[in-house]
Amino acid sequence: MSERWPHGLVYAVVCRWGGVVVALGAMCGVAGAAAGGEPGSVADFPPVEALPASSELPDPLVMFGTGEAVRTAEAWYRKRRPQIVALVQHYMYGYLPEAPAVSAEVRRVDAAFLSGRATLREVTLSFGPPGTPPVDLLVIVPNGRQAAAPVFLGINFCGNHTVVDDPHVALPRSWVPERCRGAVENRATDEGRGAQAEAWCVDELIARGYALATFYCGDIDPDRPDFTDGVHPHFLRPGQTEPGPHDWGTIAAWAWGLHRAVDYLITCDDLDRRRICVVGHSRLGKTALLAGALDERIALVVPHQSGTGGMALSRGNQQETVARINTSFPHWFNDVFCQFNGCEELLPIDQHLLVCLVAPRPLLDTEGDQDLWANYEQALAALRGADAVYKLLGRRGLVASGVVRDDEPFTAENCGDIVQYRRDAPHVLNRDYWRRILDFADFQLGAPASAP
Ligand code: GTR
């Protein structure tokens, strides 16, 4: 596991119970910093029309612009990694704003959740300029363990009340998609309680000694193509009425929201801050990958069936192309990314570089045979493209075929730091996947302490 921390990390305080607002302090992460610039500044990279075309993947160990080779771990961390951090924001996801101070209010604690096997708490995280909407974080921690629990952090699609079947979990305050069960005129209702419980399998995580932390994506930014709600209007620069071409899209905002949740999780005594794992499905898998790539406090990354803009390479992608995703979901990425529609070969990045940013930390790419749209072949190619960076950093990277299937256990022979796990399944997150995700976390980070 990585021992490196974002520069300038300042945090204090531990979690407190019972409605006490706790200021978590300012976090200065790597995410907002352009190469060599101040956090939040736009890097000095060429316009898209001036970029050289190449059908080959950009070499992670060659500097963009100068062509200089990166031969040492020191050069990776000092030069190439920060350059890639800037490139992926500049040309694709948009720049994440500097990390704000976050305060946490524990609104409700149920120490007898799951028949006493877990403690559920609802925490409201507040941050940013006045008026920025808060995030309601649901945290469920196993009871009776001898050590702080490792935690899976992931965003949910329809509200915290859909994750568990519980009559008290607060409904989202913001807009929800009509496709969410129980949504009436884009508002959540009690009808949706527990609707996504099979996707989260909280009982499974708790039984295995893992905690879960989750929040609704719409708390950060409702998933619709406008920037008038969520966090975006609160982070405009003077004179702006909407995000500029290099500013953050929705996926970057969601990833930044995950970072705010991490700000809180690392202060919790009952959670193991060295074992924070990030997970997400589909568009939220793209988000998990970006969040893990940009925040070294995250120990393990699971982009589940994340597809284009996630694990699947853009170059040569015959399924969801860059043009297609930018047309269907114009708010997910920044405006500059649209200039690569139909000309992916101009991209100075590709998705393997996101995996390189995760290095040396472990990453599990979970895919389904029936989920051709997500394109597991292109995801496997991204893992292959990142292997050299893991090796440079003294890790095993990808071993053997790079693929583990079905119920095959993860072993030193078939599983390095990065691996694709695949089973015969469609586009879904369910218990079968969770069992293997937890197996991978046990294998990479050590199994959680058992109950006494
Ligand atoms: C699809 C989109 C995919 C994936 C998916 C999802 O429509 O084309 O990239 O993100 O949505 O999030 O469910």
Q: Which outline best applies?
A: globular
Write down the domain tally. Answer: 1
Return residue spans where pLDDT drops below 50 for at least 5 consecutive residues. Answer: 1-20, 25-39
Bound molecules: beta-D-galactopyranuronic acid
Structural class: alpha/beta
Looking at CATH, the homologous superfamily is Alpha/Beta hydrolase fold, catalytic domain
Task: Sketch the major β-sheet.
Answer: 11 strands, mixed
Integer-rounded radius of gyration:
20 Å
Q: Count of DSSP helices?
A: 11
Spell the H/E element sequence. Answer: EHEHEEEHHEHHEHEHHEHEEH
User: Percent of residues in helical segments?
Assistant: 25-40%
CATH class descriptor name: Alpha Beta
Distance between the termini: 26 Å
CATH architecture call: 3-Layer(aba) Sandwich
> Could you please say which CATH topology applies here?
Rossmann fold
Q: Residue-averaged pLDDT, rounded?
A: 92
Could you tell me the number of beta strands? 11
Strand content: 15-25%
How is the largest sheet built, in terms of strand order? 1-2-3-4-6-5-7-8-9-11-10
Textual characterization of the structure:
With 452 residues, the chain is an alpha/beta fold. The protein is globular and about 60 Å long. It has a single domain (2-445), classed as Alpha/Beta hydrolase fold, catalytic domain (Rossmann fold, 3-Layer(aba) Sandwich), CATH 3.40.50. An eleven-stranded mixed β-sheet has the order 1-2-3-4-6-5-7-8-9-11-10, sandwiched between helices. It has helices spanning 73-93, 113-116, 197-200, 202-207, 217-220, 250-265, 283-294, 322-328, 352-358, 376-392, 431-445, and strands at 21-23, 102-112, 118-127, 135-142, 149-156, 211-216, 271-281, 300-304, 363-368, 403-405, 418-423. Helix content is 25%, strand content 17%. Helix 7 links the parallel strand 7 and strand 8. Bound molecules: beta-D-galactopyranuronic acid. Beta-D-galactopyranuronic acid is lined by residues 282-283, 307-308, 320, 325, 328.
